[in-house]
């Protein structure tokens, strides 16, 4: 991960002046989606780049040590070795960026990765994920426990009630406390944009989260009805850009929820390149939160290498 974002004092004047031009945002999002996509080896290269930015995730009620272990093994070898070899990429250390699990599964993931001799980071969701509606004391304890179990990245969820009612000082104070509880672990702040109502609210919540010391801002838990959309991403990355221009601190961006195809992953990379520049095109500042995306990317790479799509049994489960 990149240098930490130390945060800053809560600048309510800056927050209160925010107004987002909805039409301009929608138009820009359409432009980015309408870009011609790269073909052949260039497309395969972008897709491999996307793999290295994935937080490979399992957040299900039926998670067990064995499927967490399988997730970790897939994260360390995300694309079949023979496919990488035929692209001359087998010795480039391609892994996903991290694995992401519930707090109670962190120890399992850490154990699996250690046994595989991998230094891949383990990220944990916390703070009453996905609704964030548990008492503050419990949410803080959850962060501390995940860190104690070996998580080096924590994906916290904000209290949407505070954002919806404009209690920005209270929201800032909560996130500051989460940041403190994270210690050396990097903090990604989930805004749950589908529950924030307006683009202006999304921008304000992004700003307050960064002021409070978030290292990343993340769109969604993946459990809301609206998750990562391009217009919402434009609003969030513009907030990241404004924060960087004002403070000199770079904050990362993580879209999550509903990102399933290799083609979409390339659009996300294009958005980052155009809006924030090449510096943001790496796992230190860009992550894709996904569980089924990797399977499609591997399918497309298989097609690029062999000229045909794989039968169901030819690729291991993602």
UniProtKB/TrEMBL annotation:
SMART domains (alphabetical)? DeoC
Its Enzyme Commission number(s) read 4.1.2.4
Q: Where in the cell is it found?
A: Cytoplasmic granule; Nucleus
Query: What is an example of a GO molecular function annotated in this UniProt entry?
Result: deoxyribose-phosphate aldolase activity
Q: In which pathway does it act?
A: Carbohydrate degradation; 2-deoxy-D-ribose 1-phosphate degradation; D-glyceraldehyde 3-phosphate and acetaldehyde from 2-deoxy-alpha-D-ribose 1-phosphate: step 2/2
Q: Tell me how this protein assembles.
A: Interacts with YBX1.
Top enzyme class: lyase
> What NCBIfam families does UniProt report for this protein, alphabetically?
deoC
Give a yes or no for keyword Cytoplasm in this entry. yes
Q: Which reaction does it catalyse?
A: 2-deoxy-D-ribose 5-phosphate = D-glyceraldehyde 3-phosphate + acetaldehyde
**Homology family:** Belongs to the DeoC/FbaB aldolase family. DeoC type 2 subfamily.
Q: Which domain of life is it from?
A: Eukaryota
Q: What organism is the protein native to?
A: Cirrhinus molitorella
Report one GO cellular component: nucleus
Question: Which keywords describe this protein according to UniProt?
Answer: Cytoplasm, Lyase, Nucleus, Schiff base
Q: What is this protein called?
A: Deoxyribose-phosphate aldolase
